[in-house]
Write a structure and sequence with these properties.
about 70 residues, mainly beta, four-stranded mixed sheet, three-stranded parallel sheet, about 30% strand
Length: about 70
């Protein structure tokens, strides 16, 4: 799992991960994105956009889907 920011020392370019989030093996969360509470990020997914609370994000780039 990789969490990556912008590398700037000023500003908030790092990802924010909510409570009770499951990040799969090899997943990457890049840039100033928000992963909401109780979200699930699949193995090897590359997250470059916000993931809503309770959603499942899979793929490269990751797409968020709400469970049925």
């Amino acid at each position: 799992m990789t969490l990556g920011g912008s590398g700037r020392s000023v500003g908030d370019g790092s990802p924010r991960v909510g409570d009770d989030v499951h990040l799969g093996a090899g997943s990457r969360v890049l840039g100033p994105v928000v992963v909401g509470d109780r979200a699930v990020v699949g193995a090897n997914a590359v997250v470059v956009a916000d993931v809503p609370a309770g959603a499942v994000a899979v793929g490269v780039p990751a797409r968020s889907r709400m469970p049925a």
